[in-house]
Specification:
The chain is α/β, with parallel strands linked by helices and 508 residues long. It has helices spanning 3-17, 21-27, 31-40, 49-74, 123-136, 152-160, 169-201, 203-215, 233-243, 245-254, 263-286, 296-314, 319-335, 342-350, 362-379, 405-408, 423-433, 443-450, 455-464, 472-484, 494-507; strands spanning 78-86, 91-101, 106-116, 143-148, 164-167. The chain starts with a helix and ends with a helix. GO terms for molecular function: protein dimerization activity; zinc ion binding.
Length: 508
């Protein structure tokens, strides 16, 4: 193998596979590493750090950039997610692209850019940046939606581009949880934070706590301190704190420190952990990047509302627990009104796991079907639809004590159908008559088998099911960026950070 070919292979391994690219690049300055490489391939001269981190990095970036542009260029419809992040010295904005590959009916996602943003975060400036990204990748006419958080400047920026905007489900859910905790049990949370901070700062107290945990046959779990920017961290803090109630009380008593917590505080901690467990699980489920999530939004919100109402009627919760339940219920009912959005409704009906069950009533379902029929007409397909009566097997999967139990119990009920017949309505009606898939099935695999049977609906779903329910893909990019630009590496240029992350994210 020639010197250049080996070098290219080295840079691919370092940039694509190494957990920390910067450390991997600096590794080749180690004499031990040089000796190892020399023994493996005596004829090869290991490139210098600057060569590997600059010249060869640029070569790999340009190669991969061309590949990504070619792939997104073939997509029929693309959804973007976008968000902003500020590190030690600089501000960044990220944009990721999501689409369904028409050839094999699989979901794909790419990081388009993590760009330095030195201007003010106004809607006009953000819109201009997003437009530049779309033009650079040649996808301006393909973008059907942009998913953002609830920030007004982000939502306004997307509106300025005349592109549909959907609010991040996970971000909205987190706002509801944080506001409900603040308005129902803020004193308890502050007391817990104060105690956890004390144990974090005092090695003596921490050692004593671990000793008591061991003596009382508790698992030696570390206490968790909540972080305002980290979703559900307050829930994790309260849950972990309550699990260690006896060791904590004993430790503070031995140290002569008053906890300031009363019995009612311990009760609300336990109740909050029970109430908010489903919110945490749902946040994780809806933050998935490699599965279809948008159609779940309406179903999950409905199930959460029913669960909260059931808890309120159970009489199992104290005064503060009831307040928390009511606040969560109010938050769901007010903040998720955007679920009546046409795109969300269409995505739900076009998902073979949900169809009409994602609509709140028959009238809503029929209105959504009318919208789908109009969309089908706009697609301009006039091919004849063959009537078929295939029915997929409908297997149930047991999953006890899940927020999904109510949904799963109705799996085998008769399907709601439309009866007016026309070429497009025949196609839609036949699709709706198909048996529901189980909710754990991959809807894209179902459509891969049936796309020739329902060609117009398939073209429509390419525009709807590619939309993720959250902007979490951008959050993941920022988490990776934090690992790269640390206080010890704060001189890294923004352009280089973008190239490193572009390669790492898009090579996997």
């Amino acid at each position: 193998m020639e010197q250049f070919q080996i070098s290219q292979h080295v840079v691919c391994v370092v940039t694509d596979k190494a957990p920390n690219m910067e450390k991997a690049v600096s590794l080749n300055e180690s004499q031990d590493f040089k000796d190892l490489f020399k023994s493996l391939c005596p004829s090869y001269n290991l490139p210098a750090r600057k060569t590997l981190g600059n010249t060869m990095l640029n070569i790999r970036y340009k190669e991969l950039l061309g590949e990504v542009k070619a792939k997104v260029g073939k997509a029929k419809a693309i959804c973007l997610t976008s968000d902003g992040w500020t590190d030690i010295n600089e501000s960044f904005f990220a944009a990721t692209a999501h689409y369904i590959n028409d050839a094999d009916c699989t979901l794909h996602s790419f990081l388009l850019e993590l760009g330095q943003f030195s201007k003010k975060h106004t809607s006009e400036n953000i819109a201009a940046w997003l437009k530049t990204v779309m033009v650079n990748f040649g996808i301006s006419e393909k973008v059907c939606c942009v998913v953002t958080d609830n920030a007004p400047n982000m939502k306004c920026a997307v509106n300025l581009l005349r592109i549909e905007n959907i609010t991040c489900f996970a971000h909205t859910l987190n706002i509801i949880v944080q506001n409900s905790i603040r308005d129902s049990m803020l004193d308890t949370v502050n007391s817990v934070k104060h105690i956890v901070s004390y144990f974090k700062k005092s090695s003596t107290a921490l050692l004593k706590l671990h000793e008591l945990q061991k003596n009382m046959n508790y698992v030696e779990l570390k206490l968790i301190l909540d972080v305002p920017t980290r979703w559900n961290s307050t829930v994790y803090m309260l849950e972990r704190f309550h699990l260690n109630q006896e060791p904590i009380i004993s430790c503070l008593a031995i140290l002569g420190i008053s906890s300031g917590l009363e019995e009612s505080d311990w009760i609300i901690m336990k109740e909050a952990s029970t109430i908010l467990k489903n919110f945490d699980l749902i946040t994780k489920e809806m933050s998935a990047e490699k599965t279809i999530t948008l159609p779940k939004m309406r179903v999950i919100v409905s199930l959460l509302i029913n669960k909260l109402k059931s808890n309120l009627n159970s009489g199992d919760f104290g005064a503060k627990g009831v307040i928390l339940l009511n606040l969560l219920l109010k938050g769901l009912l007010t903040r998720f009104q955007f679920l009546d959005n046409s795109t969300v409704s269409q995505a739900t009906v076009l998902d073979p796991r949900f169809k009409h069950r994602g609509c709140k009533d028959n009238d809503t379902f029929k209105q959504c079907c009318d919208i789908i029929l109009n969309e089908m007409t706009n697609l301009g397909s006039t091919q004849e639809v063959t009537l078929m009566n295939e029915v997929l097997p409908n297997e149930s999967v047991e999953n006890a004590n899940s927020i999904w139990d109510e949904f799963d119990s109705e799996q085998n009920q008769p399907q709601l159908m439309l009866h007016t017949r026309s070429s497009f309505r025949i196609e839609l009606d036949d699709y709706l008559s198909e048996a529901l898939c189980h909710r754990n099935d991959d809807p894209l695999q179902w459509w891969k088998i049936h796309k020739m049977k329902y060609p117009t609906l398939y073209e429509l779903l390419l525009k709807k099911l590619c939309i993720p329910a959250s902007s979490v893909p951008c959050e993941r990019i920022f988490s990776k960026a934090e690992d790269i630009e640390t206080s010890k590496r704060n001189r890294l240029k923004a352009n280089k950070i973008n190239k490193i992350l572009f390669i790492k994210h898009n090579s996997s």
